[in-house]
């Protein structure tokens, strides 16, 4: 299986590490944000432990550790292993610089 | 591009010719025909089978050479030890398995039909004792009733202890295949990648047409063929293509393919697996055709081929008919008989009988007659001579019998006669023969198209399964696709090749497809002739028709159950000749159709693959890559003992002459540091340069403690949690400039922490202005520790550098200039508890640094120390490491709870506050020392309250790290103990059931040495 890294091109899957579902978002936790501790804890509990296990296309985090060290968000069909798309994480590689117009 | 050439006779000297004539005249090739076939008569080869010397020719397989030498008996069967012969001429061979070579290269279960003959080849039959002709184990046939389907499950159920002592050894001796070598494999195996537009699998008429069409169109083509020669069935069948002899066509097609620079031909290469995204695996037998690989040559090469499109033209396999005695030596597939005659000029029998239920089988009659041998009878249950073979019958006055073969008589040397039964009137007659050619029809090779759980579909007109689709990017063509005539193969292959090339964007013209007859096949299915005597379905696993029907009677009707219960199709041939027959008989027994009965799931590998080929060069010391520290070679010269830590090799200790064991060396190193000075290469720690305006904020979020408040020029110990609140890693991080930190990790977690930090930067906090650079390999880092550390170091740095407590206090961190001008990074940090520095120099200076430390330290008795002494000193100081950072402990468990900032968010903060993670009865780090000072403490031992019986209810933790402390002159340790910090001074029971030890120990502070930390601030 090969994965099309947006920075490096198609590379063999041994260069990548799989992390899992890319849907959960880390709660934006401000220390003095006024949220009740229970709500903060519940939000983190969901973020850390709750995952959907889809048979079909999933958004997943992959890390190109054997290449450009970018974190990628891939849409992959968990039934056929087919990659629908692979994009860079918001802060990956030159993404930040590119966004800043460099 | 391609190194492929069809074998051409070589020029020889007169002397070689004379030698050859001698060899040929002394040869015993009683069944060699006068024609040339595809063998080279000018290259005779000597070989031995079961110790008997014989000869063959270049181009022979071991099987064809045995046929030419008139050998029929080549093996004993798996369970019943029945005499067996050669059944096929290809890789599907179920019976003719031999043990190849000797000594360390001995390899069992080699198919004689695919083993190329070479000069000096040594092969032996297997699974017989004492000899192939007189096999005492054939008495197993008398016990046949216990060897029926499911016998493993039925016979040896009770008592359980008999399994190991009696049943298993007995079965292993009695039933089995060959023995593998018990010595390390002396050969090398390689792995390689290849990339192409169009991969063509199989070099028969369809594959050649596909490769040619795609190659002409301009695609990058790889054609893989498991055989040594291209041609597939053309080599055995001949025929006429485009008005020329098939061999002439083969030569001209091969020439054109070889001339195309975009076509690569790989023979001796068997495709065995289909993986995701157009990746294929193939095994190239590089040196299996010689006695031993050439110097620096590999034995086999595992290819991973990435192809945008593939065309599978893997052909079809002729299937046997199941009838009593169908396993006797001399019963052979009709197509194999043709191959031995046409390709190898070897005659499997002088009086051949033919049993066929289809028109294709009849070709064997013609080829045998033309070769000058005799067809004694053609038995065809269809009761009518096919139109295209009527002239054949007239020309040779063939005896044609309507009916079936209902029994085969003979001995260990094979068939002597067959019984033919007219299935209408029941009349029987006996026909004398020495070879029975059988054709039950053809099974397209659907395996590769089904490896992604594809299901084949049944085609009634050819009574066979054909691909019911294929993995993305794959097409099937030719006989593999159910196109069983030569003309259709050429046409189908061409169009599949042209289509694949067009899909890859090739713009060239694929040319016209070659043409040949599209003759009929006319099969009338015949699976099973009932009668007395064993009728074999799976020759290799000795599964008979009655085993299949017994399985059905006992309720194992699903094909997957049938397979497990009878072991049908589970041998090394994976049922290539038996699976379809087995399920046809099951269909008949259950009254279902064959498609209703269905097939078992197809899985790779298609053909056996040696483990050595999968391992490639990754064996022994090359099992994984090594990482060597910058001072490695220097340390090796000092006689260091090395230990593997992850991929690293680290100096564990440096033994001196006269030291009796490791403990003596390690204790000396510890005392040298505590009383003088020592140094240790700590370059294996992970190092990350963290830069950017938000570097401090970033570190605040990944560590539990604050780093944005760290002053420039200072170092601080930091602890990271996982998001679930458990400790992840620790290390010292220094601030070298306002926007520049230098972070270190543990050796074990270096890669993972880098990955984690990149995740935090790129995914969680992409708005922070921070960049990370892995610098682990860029810096050689040494710990210099002991009361004389500063003095030693002062001699190494530029005189302008102030290393006094005032100029460079404890936890200081800054760049320093060394004598000679090299810029180093210096850190005043201590893992040992002594006054200590860590110094980083560019990695290329690592070895020089070690040398200079030795020179500069000579006046102070400097001592290099290894990871053991490092470990002893960290335990003496109560510093936690891997055994305590074990993936279950919190910061507070480690005694570091006070470090957790309450003023900021950081990874793991919220979840670390969960009830169970802050419970008062958690197991926390404490010191442990046996009350008997002479007692050796062992890690892993359990901690139980004094006077309690050890068990799950009384267990309160365990000892995590131990060492012999030369300073305290006793064994000490760290442990994780329930409510440990409240129990300092308590005597507990240490229970070690693994080592049968039980003793008492005192719970104490984890800091055994210099608890006030005076020395490190020195
Ligand atoms: Zn990449």
List the helices and strands and how they pair.
The complex is a heterodimer of chains A (102) and B (1018).
Chain A: E1 2-5, E2 9-12, E3 17-21, H1 37-49, E4 57-63, E5 71-77, E6 83-88, H2 95-99
Antiparallel strand pairs in A: 1-2, 3-4, 4-5, 5-6
Chain B: H1 14-26, E1 40-49, E2 52-58, H2 62-68, E3 75-76, E4 83-84, E5 97-100, E6 107-111, E7 121-124, H3 151-155, H4 161-174, E8 189-201, H5 205-217, E9 221-224, H6 234-237, E10 240-241, E11 244-245, H7 246-259, E12 263-266, E13 269-275, E14 279-285, E15 300-312, E16 316-318, E17 331-333, H8 334-342, E18 351-356, H9 363-370, E19 374-380, H10 390-396, E20 400-402, E21 404-411, E22 414-421, E23 428-432, E24 435-439, E25 442-444, E26 457-459, E27 464-466, E28 474-476, H11 486-503, E29 536-538, E30 543-544, H12 545-553, H13 559-566, H14 579-590, H15 594-597, H16 611-615, E31 627-628, H17 632-637, E32 641-645, E33 648-653, H18 662-675, E34 678-681, E35 686-691, H19 695-702, E36 714-721, E37 727-737, E38 740-745, H20 750-764, E39 771-774, E40 779-785, H21 789-794, E41 813-817, E42 823-827, E43 836-842, H22 846-857, E44 863-864, H23 867-876, H24 909-912, E45 923-930, E46 942-945, E47 957-965, E48 970-978, E49 987-992, E50 997-1004, H25 1014-1017
Helix pairs in contact in B: 5-7, 5-11, 8-9, 12-14, 18-23
The structure holds zinc ion (ZN).
Protein name (chain A): Sarcosine oxidase subunit delta
Organism (chain A): Mesorhizobium shonense
Enzyme class (chain A): oxidoreductase
Structural class of chain A: alpha+beta
Strand order of the largest sheet of chain A: 3-4-5-6
Count of DSSP-assigned helices of chain B: 25
Based on Cα principal axes, name the global outline of chain A: elongated
Ends apart, CA distance between termini of chain B? 72 Å
Major beta-sheet overview of chain A: 4 strands, antiparallel
Q: What small molecules are bound in this structure?
A: zinc ion
- What is the general shape of chain B? elongated
Q: On the 0-100 scale, what is the average pLDDT of chain B? A: 93
Distance between the termini of chain A: 34 Å
Q: Report the portion of residues of chain B in β strands.
A: 25-35%
Oligomer state equals: heterodimer
Number of strands of chain B: 50
Largest sheet report of chain B: 7 strands, mixed
Radius of gyration of chain B: 38 Å
Indicate the mean pLDDT of chain A: 88
Low-confidence stretches of chain B: 7-12
User: How many E strands of chain A?
Assistant: 6
């Amino acid at each position: 299986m090969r994965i099309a890294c947006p920075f490096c091109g198609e590379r063999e899957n041994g260069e990548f590490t799989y992390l899992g579902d890319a849907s959960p978002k880390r709660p934006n936790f401000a220390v003095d944000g006024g949220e009740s501790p229970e709500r903060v804890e519940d939000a983190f509990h969901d973020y850390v432990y709750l995952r959907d296990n889809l048979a079909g296309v999933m958004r997943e985090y992959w890390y190109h550790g054997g290449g450009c060290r970018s974190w990628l968000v891939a849409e992959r069909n968990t039934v056929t292993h087919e990659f629908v798309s692979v994009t860079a994480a918001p802060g990956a590689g030159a993404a930040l610089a590119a966004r800043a117009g460099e | 591009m391609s190194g492929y050439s069809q074998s051409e006779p070589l020029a020889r000297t007169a002397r070689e010719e004379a030698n050859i004539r001698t060899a040929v005249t002394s040869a015993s090739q009683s069944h060699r025909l006068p024609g040339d076939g595809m063998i080279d008569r000018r290259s005779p080869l000597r070989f031995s089978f079961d110790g008997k010397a014989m000869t063959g020719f270049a181009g022979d397989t071991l099987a064809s050479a045995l046929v030419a030498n008139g050998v029929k008996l080549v093996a004993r069967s798996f369970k019943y030890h029945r005499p067996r012969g050669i059944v096929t001429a290809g890789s599907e061979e179920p019976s003719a398995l031999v043990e190849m070579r000797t000594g360390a290269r001995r390899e069992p279960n080699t198919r004689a039909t695919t083993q190329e003959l070479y000069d000096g080849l040594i092969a032996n039959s297997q699974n017989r004792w004492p000899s192939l002709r007189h096999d005492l184990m054939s008495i197993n046939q008398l016990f046949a009733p216990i060897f029926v389907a499911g016998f493993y499950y039925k016979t040896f159920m009770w008592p359980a202890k008999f399994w190991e002592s009696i049943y298993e050894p007995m079965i292993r001796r009695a039933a089995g295949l060959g023995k593998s070598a018990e010595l390390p494999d002396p050969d090398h195996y390689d792995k390689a990648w290849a990339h192409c537009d169009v991969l063509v699998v199989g070099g028969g008429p369809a594959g050649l047409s596909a490769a040619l069409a795609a190659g002409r169109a301009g695609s990058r083509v790889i054609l893989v063929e498991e055989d040594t020669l291209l041609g597939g069935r053309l080599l055995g069948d001949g025929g006429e293509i485009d008005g020329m002899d098939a061999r002439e066509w083969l030569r001209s097609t091969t020439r054109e393919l070889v001339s195309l620079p975009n076509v690569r031909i790989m023979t001796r290469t068997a495709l065995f697996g289909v993986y995701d995204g157009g990746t294929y695996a193939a095994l190239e037998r590089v040196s299996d055709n010689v006695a031993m690989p050439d110097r620096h040559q590999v034995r086999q090469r595992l290819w991973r081929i990435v192809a945008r499109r593939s065309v599978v033209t893997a052909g079809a396999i002729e299937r046997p008919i199941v009838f009593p005695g169908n396993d006797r030596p001399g019963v052979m597939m009709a197509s194999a008989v043709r191959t031995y005659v046409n390709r190898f000029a070897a005659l499997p029998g002088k009086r051949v009988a033919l049993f066929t239920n289809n028109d294709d089988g009849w070709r064997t009659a013609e080829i045998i007659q033309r070769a000058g041998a005799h067809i004694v009878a053609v038995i065809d249950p269809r009761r009518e001579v096919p139109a295209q073979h009527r002239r054949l019958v007239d020309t040779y006055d063939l005896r044609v019998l309507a009916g079936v073969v209902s029994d085969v008589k003979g001995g260990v040397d094979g068939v002597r006669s067959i019984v033919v039964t007219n299935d209408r009137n029941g009349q029987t007659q006996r026909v004398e023969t020495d070879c029975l050619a059988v054709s039950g029809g053809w099974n397209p090779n659907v395996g590769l198209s089904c490896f992604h759980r594809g299901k084949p579909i049944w085609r009634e007109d050819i009574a066979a399964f054909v691909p019911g689709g294929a993995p993305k990017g794959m097409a099937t063509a030719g006989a593999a696709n159910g196109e069983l005539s030569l003309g259709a193969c050429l046409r189908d292959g061409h169009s599949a090749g042209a289509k694949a090339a067009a899909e890859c964007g090739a713009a060239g013209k694929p040319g016209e497809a070659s043409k040949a007859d599209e003759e009929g096949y006319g099969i009338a299915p015949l699976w099973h002739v009932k009668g007395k005597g064993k009728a074999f379905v799976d020759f290799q696993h000795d599964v008979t028709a009655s085993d299949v029907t017994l399985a059905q009677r006992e309720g194992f009707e699903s094909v997957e159950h049938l397979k497990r219960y009878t072991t049908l199709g589970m041998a090394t041939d994976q049922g290539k000749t038996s699976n379809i027959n087995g399920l046809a008989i099951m269909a008949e027994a259950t009254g279902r159709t064959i498609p209703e009965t269905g097939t078992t799931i197809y899985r790779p590998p298609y053909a056996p693959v040696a483990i050595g080929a999968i391992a490639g060069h990754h064996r022994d010391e090359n099992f994984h890559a090594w990482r060597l520290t910058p001072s490695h070679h220097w340390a090796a010269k000092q006689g260091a003992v090395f230990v593997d830590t992850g991929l690293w090799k680290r100096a564990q200790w440096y033994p001196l002459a006269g030291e009796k064991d490791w403990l003596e060396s390690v204790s000396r190193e510890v005392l040298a540091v505590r009383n003088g000075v020592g140094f240790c290469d700590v370059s294996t720690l992970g190092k990350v340069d963290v830069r950017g305006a938000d570097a401090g904020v970033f570190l605040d979020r990944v560590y539990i403690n604050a780093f944005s408040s760290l002053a420039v020029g200072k170092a601080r110990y930091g602890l990271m949690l996982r998001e679930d609140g458990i400790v992840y890693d620790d290390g010292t991080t220094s601030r070298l400039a306002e926007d520049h930190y230098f972070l270190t990790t543990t050796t074990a977690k270096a890669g993972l922490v880098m990955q984690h930090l990149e995740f935090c930067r790129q995914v969680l906090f992409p708005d922070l202005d921070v960049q990370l650079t892995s610098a682990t390999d860029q810096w050689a880092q040494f710990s210099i520790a002991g009361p004389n550390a500063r003095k030693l170091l002062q001699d190494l740095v530029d005189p302008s550098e102030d290393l006094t407590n005032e100029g460079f206090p404890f936890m200081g961190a800054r760049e320093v200039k060394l004598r000679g001008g090299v810029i180093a990074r210096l850190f005043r940090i201590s893992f040992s508890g002594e006054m200590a520095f860590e110094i980083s120099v560019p990695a290329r200076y690592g070895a020089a640094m070690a040398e200079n430390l030795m020179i500069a330290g000579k006046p102070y008795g400097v001592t290099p120390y290894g990871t053991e002494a490092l470990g002893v000193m960290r335990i003496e100081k109560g510093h936690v490491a891997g055994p305590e950072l074990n993936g279950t402990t919190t910061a507070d468990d480690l005694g570091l709870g006070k470090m957790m900032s309450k003023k900021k968010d950081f990874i793991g903060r919220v979840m670390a506050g969960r009830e169970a993670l802050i419970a008062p009865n958690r197991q926390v780090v404490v010191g442990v020392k046996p009350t008997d000072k002479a007692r050796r403490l062992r890690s892993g031992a359990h901690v139980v309250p004094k006077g309690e019986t050890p068990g799950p209810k009384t267990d309160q933790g365990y000892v995590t790290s131990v060492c012999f402390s030369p300073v305290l002159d006793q064994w000490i340790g760290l442990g994780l103990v329930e409510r440990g910090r409240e129990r300092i001074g308590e005597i507990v029971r240490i229970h070690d059931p693994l080592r049968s030890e039980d003793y008492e120990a005192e719970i104490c502070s984890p800091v055994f040495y210099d608890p006030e930390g005076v020395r490190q601030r020195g």
